[in-house]
Amino acid sequence: MSLSICGQNGELPETQIAIVVSRYNESITGKLSVAAEQTLLDAGFTPESITVAHVPGAWELPLITAHFLRQPKFGAVIALGAVIRGETTHDEHINRAVSLALMNLGLETGKPVAFGLLTCNTVEQAIHRSGGNVGNKGVESADAILEVLRLQPKLPA
């Protein structure tokens, strides 16, 4: 017999959550951050249990994410940023390095890390993903964290 485990409902652990948000492309990332924080508040987290840290750009997301993940009181981190393609391949290098670093941090610490880094070809695409006609990836990132936090205690030892 198979066992099906779901984290879409259930109790949330008492923990703190950090939101690490890039200031680069702040007109985009600010909307992601506000939406992620509101999603956590709507789920029952208190303002005191949410820490928002601003970093210069996407490149700095993993370092500060690691800082929070290594503190016992933080149970998860939502990493938010927006890298928009330019005239060179710079965006590809940033996106690859940051995404791999964030994934490795989650695996290393056993704590969930939400990947809320927009990797868009145009500013218009980023606008659509930060509250436009494609939704808000800040909400999606916070929802993913909430689901994993609910799921983890249900997993078999």
UniProtKB/TrEMBL annotation:
Transferase as UniProt keyword: yes
Pfam families in UniProt: DMRL_synthase
Database matches in SUPFAM superfamilies: Lumazine synthase
Keyword Ribosomal protein: no
Catalytic residues, chain numbering: 90 (proton donor)
Positions annotated to bind 5-amino-6-(D-ribitylamino)uracil: 24, 58-60, 82-84, 115
GO cellular component term of the entry, any: cytosol
Entries under CDD domains matching the protein: Lumazine_synthase-I (cd09209)
GO molecular function, one term: 6,7-dimethyl-8-ribityllumazine synthase activity
Positions of (2S)-2-hydroxy-3-oxobutyl phosphate binding: 87-88, 129
Keywords: Riboflavin biosynthesis, Transferase
Biological or metabolic pathway of the protein: Cofactor biosynthesis; riboflavin biosynthesis; riboflavin from 2-hydroxy-3-oxobutyl phosphate and 5-amino-6-(D-ribitylamino)uracil: step 1/2
Enzyme Commission code(s) on record: 2.5.1.78
Catalytic activity: (2S)-2-hydroxy-3-oxobutyl phosphate + 5-amino-6-(D-ribitylamino)uracil = 6,7-dimethyl-8-(1-D-ribityl)lumazine + phosphate + 2 H2O + H(+)
GO BP annotation list: riboflavin biosynthetic process
HAMAP family given in the database record: Lumazine_synth (MF_00178)
Cited NCBIfam families: lumazine-synth
Family per similarity comment: Belongs to the DMRL synthase family.
Function in brief: Catalyzes the formation of 6,7-dimethyl-8-ribityllumazine by condensation of 5-amino-6-(D-ribitylamino)uracil with 3,4-dihydroxy-2-butanone 4-phosphate. This is the penultimate step in the biosynthesis of riboflavin.
The protein's name: 6,7-dimethyl-8-ribityllumazine synthase
